[in-house]
Amino acid sequence: MRTRRFLSGGWLSVYAFLYIVFLYLPVIFLPIFSINTAPTPKFPLTGFTLQWYADLPHTPALLDAAWNSLKVGVCASVLATVLGILAARSITRYRYPGRRTINGLIMAPLVLPEVIVAISMLLVMLQLGLSLSLFTVVLGHVLVCIPYSMTVLTSGFEGFDRSLEEASADLGESAFGTFRRVTLPMVAPAIISSLLVCFTISLDEFIIAFFLTGTEATLPIYIWGQLRFASKLPGVLALGTLLLVASFLLMTVAEILRRRAARRTQNEGGLYA
Amino acid sequence: MTAAAEGSPPLRMTRARRNALLQSEPVQGFALISPTFLYALILLVLPILVVIAHSFWTQHYLTIDRTFTLENYRVALTEPIYRDLLWRSLYISLTVSLLTVILAYPIAYFISFHGGRHKSLWLFLITIPFWTSYLLRVMSWKVILGYNGVLNSGLMGLGIIDEPSTALLYNSSAVIITLTHAWAAFAILPIFVSLEKVDRTLVEAATDLGDGPLRSFLRVTLPLSAPGVISAALIVMIPTVGDYVTPKLVGGKDGVMIANAIQAQFGKAANWPLGAALSVTTMLIVTLMAGATVLIIRALQRLAR
């Protein structure tokens, strides 16, 4: 009787609650200390201020880093999503030998120590005589974004009803026309979701950017530089809070779109099948 | 019949066959994936091969001597600092993955078996913290565990301790806590997915046949969710061995890991071949650990049956 309650009952919800507290614990302190007047983050809080936020737009280095991150993020997410669409479509639509191996290789950056990925790319780029710049950062970010893009896109492409495409071809559409007018609208939410996920990853990615960047810092590299100075911490916390809010919004939209994509391909596919 | 007419049917055949070949599934599928595949080959496989090559070379100041040698591996495996760093990385990564999986299992179980309609909401709730910058999450742990940190000031405020403890930060425990937090979601998700696949009628059948809830959990649910446990363990273990940021920020002198040494070899020390040998050794260790984990969990799974 006791074991039954143990496995099905209340302690699990208590545990789940505590676990969520643990997960949110470090995240909660960013906003809390970012509106505190004291420059050192500790309790008790000394007072409320928005000073740290107000200072942010007056920091040229930060604005440069933000602009760099934006450029890198847009380029990396677009490239990774295009490559992701090709691969995800190939994986979900065709059967051919070596499919699993190739897929494993493309997904490999997910499970390789990032430092090693970063350093090996650095080594090759230096030997090829490529000078390090935001371009090399983009190359690295695309590589680490593709697996995430693939995950989102395959869930959008799976269950996609091929008879719709066949019908379109039978009715006289060209291959490209079918893709543009039938396939694309069906998977559009998944594509947008992939763009948002990749952008968020690129925005937060540190190690690859740290090794592959030249003189131009991205936001995480800027933050890394600031962490050395204790007095800069509140500003960093304020910036971190803004980034958290941005990531949260992007991910929420991405998740809603991913679900819509999955639902659309499955339901409508079922209806017309 | 003219010669041309005689020649044309086979020609048409080959063209038709070529078209059929071009439109066949394998060729179309492969053509479609090849840009992404090439990208991964050029920017992942080639670089790793270059690193492996470097690990067998030596460096004299700025020139690389391409004579084959195992000297770098001898240094990596026998020099006390590198040996210790490798062991520490191994120990930290194993502890973190074990802790993460043990902590993650009940929550994944809770969501899968008691989540009801709110499963996806729970999952979303769990993933949110992971979209904060990794640097800032590590930084937050520094704020929590530090000398003037939240934990110390909190404990002092409650009168539990009289002066701040320095034992919380800058050691391998701080690294373990931070990494356990950082990788939690990556363990929960695969376990949840495998629990979702557990056929509920099997669990009911076990209960109907007289197994108590604990027994049916141990003999049905747990073994059936083993694939998720394996992938969770691997997903946490493999990247944590090579983590750079956490040891650097919260590890202090006693919490430095192998990635920090690798970075030093490619940076300040400017000894690429040694750095390469350390990288390859790390990858080999990771592979061995991953293999061992899979074997151990499979064996446990067989025992449970």
UniProtKB/TrEMBL annotation, chain A:
Q: Where in the cell is it found?
A: Cell membrane
What are the entry keywords?
Cell membrane, Membrane, Transmembrane, Transmembrane helix, Transport
Report how it sits in the membrane. Multi-pass membrane protein
Superkingdom: Bacteria
SUPFAM superfamilies, per this entry? MetI-like (SSF161098)
Identify the main location: membrane
For biological process, the GO terms are: transmembrane transport
Similarity-based family: Belongs to the binding-protein-dependent transport system permease family. CysTW subfamily.
Q: Which GO terms describe its cellular component?
A: plasma membrane
Q: Does the keyword Kinase apply?
A: no
Query: What Pfam families does the annotation carry?
Result: BPD_transp_1 (PF00528)
Q: What species does this protein belong to?
A: Rhizobium loti
Name of the protein in question:
Spermidine/putrescine ABC transporter
Span-the-membrane segments of this chain are 12-35, 70-92, 104-126, 233-257
TrEMBL record, chain B:
Could you tell me the keywords of this UniProt record? Cell membrane, Membrane, Transmembrane, Transmembrane helix, Transport
Q: Does the keyword section mention Nucleotide-binding?
A: no
Membrane topology per the entry is: Multi-pass membrane protein
A GO cellular-component term linked to this record = plasma membrane
Q: InterPro entries given for it?
A: MetI-like, MetI-like_sf
Q: Does the keyword DNA-binding belong to this entry?
A: no
Q: Where are the transmembrane segments?
A: 37-57, 90-108, 120-136, 143-161, 173-195, 216-238, 276-300
Q: Where in the cell is it found?
A: Cell membrane
Gene3D superfamilies membership: MetI-like
* Pfam assignment, any one: BPD_transp_1
* Protein family per UniProt: Belongs to the binding-protein-dependent transport system permease family. CysTW subfamily.
Write down what this protein is called. Answer: Spermidine/putrescine ABC transporter
Organism, by scientific name, is Rhizobium loti (Mesorhizobium loti)
